[in-house]
Every structure is written in structure tokens, then in C-alpha cells.
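Let's see one such:

===
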Amino acid sequence: MKKKTDSQHAFSDGRFLLSSIASVGGVILAVLASGPISNGFDQAKRTKLGANLIQPGVAPGRFPAGGQNFWVQTNGPQGGDGIALATNSSGHVFVGTQGGGVFRSTDNAETWTAVNNGLTDTNVRALAINSTGHIFGGTWSSGVFRSTDNGDSWTPVNNGLDSPSVRSLAINSGGDVFAGTFYGGVYRSTDNGENWTLLNTGQAGPYVPALAINASGHVFAATWDIKFCTGIFRSTDNGDSWIEINNGLTNLGILSFAINENGDVFAGGDVDGLCGNGRVFRSTNNGDSWQLVQNGLNTGNGINGLLATSGGALFAGSYGDGVFRSTDNGDNWTQVNTGLTEDRVITFTVNPDGDIFAGTYVGGGVFRSSDNGDTWIEKNNGLVATDVRAIASKFDGTVFAGTYGIGAFRSSDSGQRWEQINNGLFAHFVRCLAIGPNGHIFAGADFVDGLGGVFRSTDNGDSWTDVSQGVIEFDVRALAINSNGYIFAGTYVGGTIGGVWRSTDDGESWTHVNNGENCGLIWSLAINSQDHIFAGTSGCGDGVYRSTDNGDNWELANNGLTSTDVAGLAVSPNGHIFAATYTFMGKGGGIFRSTDNGDSWTEHDTGLTTLDVNTVVPNSRGHMFAGTAAGAFRSTNDGNNWSDISGGLVPVSGNVWALAIGSGNYAFAGTAGGGVFRSVQSTIPVRVVPSPRARPTPAPRP
């Protein structure tokens, strides 16, 4: 029985198991997920959802013209990956997110506002604020950005910064800025970020997940070599030279630092076994030697965040067991998780009043404690940075969103308000949604923390029941329901133990229907009007399988399908089948169409600017919509040509995981880091016919 447990540290989270980059230790947290890397983000100004969702300047019933946004962001689901936190002297709190950019709160985290003007990479990994209030943001792929106006606008400051992936930032009392990069070493700027110089930490180009500077200006760097763990280096001359300081450090995989008012340095370690053993280490002699201090720190997870408060308390954020607190300089620790509904804690900050803020991963957002950690309150109002992998809509306009980490949400008013609907939905890593003819809703989820499979709701999402427990114990990546209400679930596990499962009784029981299907790695499903089933695979080179007998038997249907990692399948109203595929090692990908029920396929990519395609859906007129790793596209001529309709997305060229056509043929998009977006207009414009002019009545002749 498969029981995939979640990672113990933020490096190999279940979100990234299929990524094309293998990483070890620390907070990598890349936007790899089950698809390609989304780099080079372009940022559009975030538009709040209006009461009628009609964009100014767009006549009702007409598509937005060139230059006008196709999409408007809904008000949720709220949350996101709070990867970086910082607080300025005025108590304003800033959070950097994965895909949503930077958010600012001026009211102690009661409300958040996106502040991304000029920020062309919305995957923000590090934040630091200098004594004049200038904010520096380190991004996944575009280096460092600086804001001199409290986040209202951002400017890239990367001259000399040859390694664009920045994972840590620190600023000394003189205003010098230090940037730790992803296998590029440490850089220093002595002119407020205008220019950068590479520093030698004693090895060539290490990964630097954490930096810290003490009151004397000594710099501490946590380093990882690409082949082995290298521990901590210290510089006492502002980074000009470095020495290794690992005496007593039994775990060389360091992820975080904190320095208290006495100058004691604390280092948080990664999971045991990777680079040694030990959670938290303390040095009382400036790093010359280290002592393991973890009594009561009962976690096997990595310590991604550390905080030392002015009141003498220490806080350790673990990736899976929440927050631990020490009030005796680290000698003893107590778990303090009351109110903390997400236990993957990766960063902290504290304001001048002593309120503590914790940033969490996999969608949990930000939590605040005003009582030294005794209790925590979720504070995500306005923080819309969620990773939405699935969208479904009912005819009455109700929209359902499946997130990767915080479960399912429902909106009954086109996205103006979202409510979390997880009662009984214990698996929170939702990959697919489907609605049956009887209105019952089905959710397929990855197995994380031992929970996953298929869940059913018979009351519009108010409650859920696990209907696959003990039968389907693998990641469920695809769901489809035929005209008879038979449910098909595609599981993602290699060999014949995976593949497709069928239920003919509303999910009460399941049968493994895999005859002829030699690849168990199912990523997509679609059913045509004849109830023929098409299954898209990934990772085995088979492409598409077809069943014409309700799933009892399968045959390959991949003639001409030169790209075989099929992330999405859809059938248009005219019966044509579309396959959305991924590239592999820079080859393949794109959209394929079959006009003969899958017997043959031809590629149709004209107008696409990326060939990594996540999903494809039709509206009722047969216009096709594609969600890709670089925005959204539309075809109004059966896929022969595609046009970019990414305007209004945050970011514009961001990752669109899921698409659905809802009531009134409005389109909904689930994105990686921006929540849910809705089309400004119906995807089927109503032709405006001018009213005939009344003819004047001729006067009677005399």
C-alpha cells in the first residue's frame, strides 16, 4: 500500500516530485510542480474584481480589444506561500510569495495589498529592509529588486549580479547588502544595490540558503556544495575573506540563522541523515564552536526559520511540525501551535510592538501571534497568492477551486467571495475536480501525509466523503464522468498497478480497468459524445490510450502524436479531440488535434509562445482555450491558430494550471500563485444588432 508522506524539509516537497531539477536540502520551493519551470514572469497590475466584472472601455458582449485585459482577478482563494517576511520601522509588514509577488500590510496584517509595480518576477524568495526603509527583494530567476517608496514601485538592481536566483539577503549597519544565491555564492553591494561584487566563501559557487550579520558586522553564511554539505562560513572583514566554522556542528545542512541581543548565534539544520544530525545549534563564541540545543524540539523536519526576539524568546519554524519556542536561550523547547492550521513554517518576522508573524508553505499564508507565540491567528485577508490546480463550475454559476495544499474552495458569486469547504476533505492537495449529472462533486488528490484518492460531496461541497479509501491508494490526477454517470479516475503510479479505475455506483465501489493499458501514469482523461474514453499518460512514452467499451479494454491511439507527455485532453463540440502536451529536455510539447476519434493526430501550435501546455478546454461554440506555463491562449478556428489572451493575469506570462468554462460561457483560470481569474466578458460575444430606426409616417394627402 502506497503511503507517500510529505517531505520533511522544503526542498523536495510533494509539489515538485516531477520537476526537471533535482535539489537537496533547504528552501528551494521552486515553481516546478508537476510541470515545467515558470520563469521570466511579467507583472501586470492586479485588478480587483468589480461588482459586474465588466472592464471599463469594453462594450458588453464584445471581446476586449488589443491592449485591454482578457482576465480580472477574483478575490481568492486567499492564502499562498509566505516564503519571505520583513517588517519596517513603521511596523508595515511585507511578505514575498511564490508566484504572487510582494504583499504589504499597513494594519498589522489585518489586510494585505499586492505591491508589484515594476516587479517582473513574482516569485520572491527573500526580503530585507535597510535603515532608510529601502526594501530589497530576491527573486527566483531575475535577481534583486529594490523599492525606495515602501513597495509602491520596484526597480531591478542587478549590475554585476551574475547569478540571478537569489535565496537570502542581509544588510549590515553600514547599509551594505549581501545576497546569497542558488549555487552562485555570495554577492555584496556597497552602493545600495546599484552594483554587486562576487565574494569567495572558500568554495566555488555554493548554494547559500541563509545569511546573518551580527552587531559587529560579522557575516555568517550557510552553504551547500552541489556534491556535499559544507556547513557555515564566517567573514569578519565584510565578506572579503571567509573561514569555515563547523566545530561541533553535527549537521552541515544549515537552513536558517538567528542572532540574539547577546550575540549568540543559532543555526537551524535540515532533516537528519542528509548532511548529519541535529535540529538547532547554538554558538556563544561567534561561531568558533557549536552546541546542539534541541531538548523538547521533537521534530524530524528541517528548521527553515529562526527568530530571536528582543524579549529573549527564540522561535523555530519546522517544515511539518509548526512552531517551537524556547525561553531559556535554546536549552529547552516547547511546541506552540495553538491556532496554527498550517504546520510548514519557513520564515518569521517581528514588528516593533512584539507581534510575531510566521510565513507558511503550501498555501497556508501568514499567521500572527500577539502573545509571544501562545496563540496564532491566520491573517490572509487580501493575500491572494494561492496555487490552484483544478477548476469546475455548475450550471447555476457556482465555481469550485482545488488548491495544492489547502484543499477546496467554493464561490457562489463569480469569485467575489470564496469559502473554504474542507469538511471531510482530509486530502488538501487537490489535482482534479469533476461534477456528475446528479450534481455530485468529485475531487481527486495526491497522497501527501498519507491522505489522497477520490472524495465525493453530495451537498454542493458542504461535506465530503472519502469514497476510494482502501481501494485507490495512489495520486489521482484526472477525473471524468460519462453520460451514464460512470466515474473514471486516472491514477499516477508506474506499472500496471496504476492506470484507470471505474465506478458505476457514484463512487461507492471501484474497479481497476486497465486491460491493454501498459502505462499507469495517467495525467488526463476525456470522454466524447459516444462515451469513448481517452487517457493521457506522462513519463512512459505512450501518449494517449482509447477505450470504446466503457474502459474494459484499451488501445494505443497515438499515431502522429510526437509529444507523449499529455497533461490535458478535451473534446470540442464537433467531436475533435485536443491534447495538451509538455516538452521534455527541450523537445516536443504543444497542442495536437485529432479529427478521427484519435486514430491520427496533427500538431497545431501556430501562435503559441510556449509549448508547455497544462490544459485545454472548449466553450459551447467550440472555441478552444489553453492554459500554459506562460499564460493563456485562445483559438476560434478549431486550433489552427492561437492568440495570446494573458492580459490581466498576475503575472501575465505566469503558469495557468486549470481552465473551466462556467455559466454564461465565462472562463475561469486557476493559476500558480495568483488564485482564480475570470474572463472580463463571456467567451461567446453577443452580436450587438442596432435597433431599426422608425420610419416617419407619411402625412395623408389632401
